[in-house]
Amino acid sequence: MYKILVLLLVILPFNLSSTAIEIIADVNGNPISNLDIDKRIKLISSLFGNYQKEQILEDLINEIIIADETEKLKIQIKDEELNNTVRLFFVYSFGLKNEEVDKYINEHNIDFNALAKKIKYDLLLHKMNAMMHPTSKVSDEELENVRKQMEQPDYLISLQEIVMPEEKKNIMYNLVKKWRDDSNFIPDPPVKIHKTILNLNKLIDKMRNILVKLEIGDITDPICINKDHCSIIKIVDKVRVDYGLLNSTLSLKQVTVQDSAINLNKITCANFDDIAKPEEIKEFKIKMKDLNADLQVVFSKGNINEIARIQNGNIVKLIMLCHIESNPTNIETLKSLIYGQNLIAQSSILLDNMRKHAVINYRNKKSVRV
Predict the structure, then answer these.
(1) What GO MF terms are annotated (predicted)?
(2) Cβ–Cβ < 8 Å for 44, 119
């Protein structure tokens, strides 16, 4: 409480000409003000665009607890380690190259020091946890379970869908009957049939559980998962993509040409360069899982010389599969991943235990041990 009084004495003269400062909470006598929260909101907004104010307060509380406990244990983070971790945060979170980080920070007006401070507390917590669990080892059973889970195949579902407001659900049953009676059914405007391809493993549980049971050609009754809209879905195709292929690196050739009498059956990787001038041919490598769903369907059988045709008016983009390079699961990388997940779980438990011994005062609430 003494620290709060000191803070109030320091800031009191400025309240007459600046934003009023309010103490929102204090942890073991360390105050958290509305300005601390506003500063963190600004940081999170610049990074992700959205935030939860209640969670921000809890994060700030946790950081004070971590700082107090790690100071007692004399745990420190070197500046070089912290700076490297912050840069890696941008690389992994936003898919940037290391040399692009500074530009990204400037363009998005991100407070580097504020972010570094936040990340520092995460590092301190994990370092404290590692100190308490120095012999944490990944078991063979853990390794096998995660490997099996990771190596599950993906399923791509090509479907047609009619979406209408929920209040028109009764009308939708009539559309279902007409569609089932006539596979070439076209609804009257303004109702439209939309085509899309979905990755079954990336859908929410309820929708996934519905689609996984359907066969090609099946047409559903109205599905109302969203409270505002319902859907009628027709399954056009279901394609299985094995884990090995999904994580393989594909060598592709691409060219954009005028739609003409090109005989695609005679095109191979060997003569692909004859379609256009050398400077118009693009060669690149990409992981199968990074392709859009439409291209994944085309290349799902792993056939060399398979060609994808993307039509846009009288312009055609041709993409041919020329080579597949497998990327087997790296056991050491997998162990590191599991170890990291275990460390995060242990750190969460450690933080919960530290909170139980911390004195946390919320504004207008009694002093509590949380």
Answers:
(1) peptidyl-prolyl cis-trans isomerase activity
(2) no
Report how far residue 202's alpha carbon sits from residue 204's, in angstroms, rounded to the nearest whole number: 7
Please state, as a whole number, how many other Cβ atoms lie within 10 Å of the Cβ of residue 306. 14
Predicted pLDDT at 16: 37
Distance CA 47, CA 44 (A): 5
Q: What percent of the chain has pLDDT over 70?
A: 90
370: tokens are 């949380």
Instruction: Decide: 327 and 335 in contact? Cβ < 8 Å.
Output: no
Q: What is the pLDDT of residues 102-148, one digit of tens each?
A: 999 999 899 999 999 999 999 999 899 888 877 667 777 877 777 77
Decide: 157 and 210 in contact? Cβ < 8 Å: no
Output DSSP code: residue 223: B
What phi, psi does 208 have (nearest 5°)?
-60, -40
Q: What are phi and psi of 312, to 5 degrees?
A: -140, 95
Tokens 């690196």 — which residue? 249
Place of tokens 């400037």: 106
Query: What's the angle, vertex CA 331, arms to CA 329 and CA 332, rounded to 5?
Result: 125
**154-241 CATH:** 3.10.50.40
Q: Cβ neighbours of residue 2 under 8 Å, at least 6 residues apart?
A: 29
Q: Report the alpha-carbon distance of residue 32 to residue 361 in Å, rounded.
A: 10
Closest residue by Cα to residue 171 from 190, 195, 151: 190
Q: Residue 342: which pLDDT band, with cuts at 50, 70 and 90?
A: confident
Say how far apart CA 171 and CA 176 lie, in whole Å: 9
- Rounded to an integer, what distance in angstroms lies between the CA atom of residue 9 and that of residue 219? 70
Topology of domain 25-152+333-369 in CATH is: Triger factor/SurA peptide-binding fold (1.10.4030)
> How far does Cα 289 stand from its chain's mean position?
14
> Domain-by-domain residue ranges, the chain?
25-152+333-369, 154-241, 249-325
Per-residue pLDDT, averaged over 41-49, amounts to 87
The pLDDT of residue 17: 40
Number of H helices, E strands in the chain: 12, 11
Instruction: Indicate the pTM of the whole model.
Output: 0.52
